[in-house]
Design goal:
By secondary structure, this protein is an alpha/beta fold. It folds into 2 domains: 60 residues, no CATH class; 257 residues, Rossmann fold (3-Layer(aba) Sandwich). Helix content is 37%, strand content 12%. The chain contains 13 helices and 9 strands. The strands form 2 sheets. Strands 3-2-4-1-5-6-9 form a 7-stranded parallel β-sheet, with helices on both faces. It has a two-stranded antiparallel ribbon with strand order 7-8. Helix 6 packs across helix 13. Bound molecules: adenosine-5'-triphosphate (ATP) and magnesium ion. The site of adenosine-5'-triphosphate (ATP) has 21 residues, from helix 6 and helix 12.
Length: 356
Amino acid sequence: MSQISPDMTISSVVDRWPDTARIFARYGLSCASCAISKSETIKQGATGHGGGRVSVEDLMRDLNSFADTGKLPDSLPPASGTAAPGGGMKMRGMAEQKGIKHVIAVMSGKGGVGKSLVAGLLAVGLTRRGFRVGVLDGDITGPSIPKMFGVREKPPVAADGKSLVPPRSRGGIPIMSMNLLLPDEGEAVIWRGPMVSGAIRQFFSDVQWGELDYLIVDLPPGTSDAPLTVMQALPISGVVLVTTPQALAAMVVTKAVKLVKQLGGDILGIVENMAYVRMPDGSQNEVFGPSQGLKLVIVSNAPLIAKVPIDPEIARLSDSGQIEMYDAPEFEELIANFLAVAPEKHPQVPVASGAT
Ligand SMILES: Nc1ncnc2c1ncn2[C@@H]1O[C@H](COP(=O)(O)OP(=O)(O)OP(=O)(O)O)[C@@H](O)[C@H]1O
Ligand SMILES: [Mg+2]
């Protein structure tokens, strides 16, 4: 028997089955978490927003299938737009063809909150768990990724004479960044959108990544053109959002949440960076104010997967190209929670085991 009927309000369904927000988003009802959904029924939403294009029957079928099985149905429409996160069919094929299972973008609204760091930590942690991981630096103007991993080598041209071989970190993580291609590391890159898309697409297609479980993409800061351009150029399967506890940072992340939702993408989880300082007596000092995590969870409908403390060791290791040496309890938590969210997005079995 159907548990969900078209006369139920969208918010009552999302409250009971939070992951249905993704199903609504795929059907163009990305308002699932906004205030309107409190009064609007599924039927009203589907006839209003979709301009009659949304099939209420299909939506009901997918919602009820989720309510019954707890799994997102295979019959879901692809994410909206031809090149949105989540990937149109064409985009998804692009990743499969390359042998890359999941492309995960790390995003935030504001600059300097630790996106690159979180991208790096995800790559290191997943590699330690035995997954095959690569890092694509989507921040054309910022050299953070190569610097953090201590990679400076110019990517050599492969035997085919066309593609590039990504240099590897000490721990064996392949890395591609515009910074590695510039004659002078310090050279500024001022590119317009179409050129950026072209470059990012080539970083994906014309680089010999090999078989990967995860390609982690470090996005440029902002909630408008720059991260959007990069996301649209790649078959993104999910987004991790990074924020800090400052109210302002939380506010811009709220915008980022909206952006991803509009694109019909999936926010896998939120990382709150610089959440506190660990004091000598073991207590946690929240120097940037109290955690905004809960608020963000409500806004985004995605779980808070880690709170990363301000740790001088992080700054030291990432500044000296040794991020792979970092070890902390929060780090384990980040990876465990990342793997726990949206399990359907993760490869079942790591190819190798053991730490690096
Ligand atoms: N939890 C932390 N503890 C200590 N230092 C940190 C922490 N997180 C980030 N940093 C440091 O803060 C600086 C900014 O971090 P990062 O480069 O990751 O931010 P970003 O969001 O990628 O910045 P941008 O917007 O410029 O790309 C770096 O020097 C990094 O080493
Ligand atoms: Mg960065």
